[in-house]
Amino acid sequence: MSQINELETQTLAAIEGAQDEAALEQVRVASLGKKGTITALLATLGKMSPEERKSAGAAINALKDKVNEALLARRTIVKGAALEARLKSESVDVTLPVREAPIETGRIHPISQVMDELTAIFADMGFSIAEGPDIESDDYNFTKLNFPLGHPAREMHDTFFFNPGADGERKLLRTHTSPVQVRTMLNAKPPIRVICPGRTYRCDSDQTHTPMFHQVEGLVIDKSAHMGHLKWILEEFCKAFFEVPSVKMRFRPSFFPFTEPSMEVDIQCRRSGGEIRFGEGEDWLEILGCGMVHPNVLRNCGVDPDEYQGFAWGMGIDRIAMLKYGMPDLRAFFEADMRWLSHYGFRPLDLPTLAGGLSS
After folding, report:
1. CA dist 302 to 13, 221, 280, 282, 312, Å?
2. pLDDT tens digit string along 12-24?
3. 120 and 82 share a domain?
C-alpha cells in the first residue's frame, strides 16, 4: 500500500505541475498508458492471492479514479489559461482610430474634375459631347482641316507618326481633338453644337507642356451662327468656370489653318503673391484660340459653306486646371504621386453642378 500512496503523491504532483496540455498528456500516458505506472500495478493483480487482490484492486482503481479526476480538473485550468493568453495576444485595441473608408481617402484627379465641370457648363448651354479615336489618319488630322502639304505641324518634330501601313499610309496620334469635329460634320447634319474633350499628343515637354495632354474644343454649325454668338459663349464659359461675376476678354487677330478669321483670347486678371485672380486687375492672360470655321473645312466635311457657317474654339484642359486651382507644374499631373493627388484631388462625391457650385 505504501507503493500506491507514493505513486499517488508523485502522479498528482506531476499533474499539478503540468503547464500546458502537451505536458498534461505526457503525465497521463506515463501513468495510465499501456506502459504506464498505474497500468503496470493493475497487471500485478493476477499474481496476488484472492484476499490481496481484493484490497489491492480497490486501492489501485481508487488511485486511477483520482488521477482521472485530477487530469480533468487540470486540463480545464490549462485550457482556460491558454485561451486567456491567446485572447491577450490576438486582441484588437478598439481604442485606436478606425481606418478611413476608401470613399474618404480616395480622390478624383483634377483633370477628371475639370472635364466634369466643362461638361456641366456646356451641357447647360445645349452642347452635347462628341468623342473620337486617339489614333487618326493624316487626312482627318490635317488635310480636311485645311493644313497644306509641307505645313510645319506635319513634321516629325511636332507629331507622333506610326510606321507606314501596307497601303503606305502613316497613322498618327492626334495632335488636337479637331478630327472629332471632322467626324461629327461628316456623320451629322447641321445644326451642330458639340464639345470634343480628350487626350492629344505632341512632341513637347517642359514645365507647361507634356507629350500627352488634354484638350477640349467646341463646334457650332448653323445657318445663322456668327461671331457675336462665339463671344457670348466664351464669356459665359469663363464666368462659370472661374466662378466670377464678370470677366473682361480681349480678342486678338491670329492665324489657324482651319478658321478664318482666327483669334486668340485673353482674359483680364491680377497677378499678386503667386496667385492669379480673374475678373479684376489690369493684366491679361491668354487662355484659348478660336475663329469662324474656314469654308474649305466645311467643304471637306460635306457642309455647304454658302448655306451654313460656324465657329470653333479650343483650349488646354490641363492649362485651365492649373490656372483655376493654382498648380505650378503640369508634369505633376502625370506622376501618380499620392501626396500630390491627396492635396489637389477632389472627394468622390463632390460632383460639379452649376446650381451647387463647380468646385464647392
Report:
1. 105, 12, 44, 44, 17
2. 777 787 788 888 7
3. no
